[in-house]
Amino acid sequence: MSKKSFYLLSLGCSKNTVDSDSMATLLTGNGYRGVERPERADVLLVNTCGFIGPAREESIQALRELAGHKKRNQLLIAAGCLSQLWGPRLAAEVPGLDGVIGTRRWMDIVDFIERARGRAHPEPMYHLPTDAVTVGDDERGAPRVAEQGASAYIKIADGCRRPCAFCTIPAIKGTLRSRRPELILAEARAQVARGARELILIAQDLTDYGSDLGLKDGLPQLITDITREAPALDWLRLMYAYPGAVSDRLIEVMANNPKVVKYLDIPLQHAHPDTLRRMRRPSNIDWVHRTVAKMRKAMPALAVRTTFIVGYPGETEAEFQSLIDFVEAMRFDRVGVFTYSYEADSPSGALPGQLPEDVKEARRDALMRVQQGISLARNQSFVGQTLQTLVEGSNDGLSVGRSYRDAPEVDGLVVIDGEVPPGEMVPVKITGAMAYDLTGTVVREQPLIRL
Fold it and tell me: Which residues, at least 6 apart from 360, have a Cβ–Cβ distance to it below 8 Å?
């Protein structure tokens, strides 16, 4: 077992994956070697997720499993969201934990591990600064990028200043801290030079990018700059736009820039104004109707993804029915439905009207049944058309890839007859449709669907 080796387990969302890859870059740049098996590592590092209850349980279980098999000279370090949220409480939940480092100073990971290695540690060591100003600064030269095949996530900001009552992100990450445009542009150029076909911009709220830097409506300009600086880029995808913050300028840039895929993720969370007010979310549903209509007019092939929370405290049958009616009327391409997770540390934890789990699950299932029918109909409308598809894998005579309508991991796939090398972009004539996925064959001389 090398004295300078580490095993890193990353849990949670793509934003966490970026943080994990940044820490790994710093470790390897300082003489550590990443290994695939925990028993071969000197340092066991888990980048935890603390967003909702099931994610916290998964993080604790992973830490306990590693602690249970930890060798005498190994260090077990918890990093990330749950570390920042719970601090010493996490160590109490996981006997054998040697260190806890939070989200605000992930870039101190090498110094933190070196200090932990150089001390007797009957008690865990903590590094949990609360100063939100540190978020996004002093990145020590580590790219804020996570590569996934021919795609790459680029984190353009961290933290959030929105007041959502159910969300612990501001407590975990702090307020918004946008990264400087020149850093993002350098990473975009580097990723495309390394062969990335798709760049995916991520943040807690993309549409708030640059407001803390004095930029007004900074996202459209960033998009324009990226596509100019990386002309070989095929696709630029946007994730997580805040309702009410999708500007006319953003719609114009998306519509007129051929490198920007006609796809937008707008987590709406609900559709009844009373529920949204309890969530401390934008409650102007007319804005949603007007803006989605405006986007669809400017981009007829636009794919809209959203997420909803059902079973929020106080959600009545009438409020839930209004959500059903809204989904049926809007006909979103992609919808994720989550049951409300009780968060004692968030304002929603104190709300009256907490609903039983079976009610929440029944409402989730009912909404998903409605959306499955809509998704199937939306998919069926593409049969006979040809979609550019980014291939991600192939085996046994088939390939799988994604069209512009599909973000990695959260949306559907295009199943292709025949094996195509991963990383290639090919035109695929759609021959079949399921609720979430499409099937098709590669064609070489057929016009692509106009986006």
Answer: 310, 311, 339, 340
Phi, psi dihedrals of residue 188, rounded to the nearest 5°: -60, -45
Domains 5-129 and 386-442 share a fold: no
Using one digit for the tens of pLDDT, what is the confidence trace for 373-388?
999 999 999 999 999 9
What are the φ/ψ torsions at residue 162 (nearest 5 degrees)?
-80, 150
193 residue type, one letter: A
Domain 145-380 has CATH 3.80.30.20: yes
**Cβ atoms 172, 445 nearer than 8 A:** no
Angstrom distance (rounded) from CA 47 to CA 65 = 14
Please provide the CATH number assigned to the domain covering 5-129: 3.40.50.12160
Mapped onto helix, strand or coil, the DSSP state of residue 140 is: coil
What is the DSSP secondary structure assignment for residue 87, as one 8-state letter? T
CATH of domain 386-442: 2.40.50.140
Q: What does the domain layout of the chain look like in residue ranges?
A: 5-129, 145-380, 386-442
Answer for the pair 55, 172: CB distance below 8 angstroms, yes or no: no
3-state per-residue secondary structure call for 217-281: CHHHHHHHHHHHHCCCCCEEEECCCCCCCCCHHHHHHHHHCCCEEEEEECCCECCCHHHHHHHCC
**Whether the Cβ atoms of residue 303 and residue 333 lie closer than 8 Å to each other:** yes
| 120-179 tens-digit pLDDT | 667 899 999 877 566 556 788 899 999 999 999 999 999 999 989 998 888 888 889 999
Terminal Cα-to-Cα distance of the chain (whole angstroms): 53
- DSSP per position, 110-125: HHHHHHHHTS--SS-E
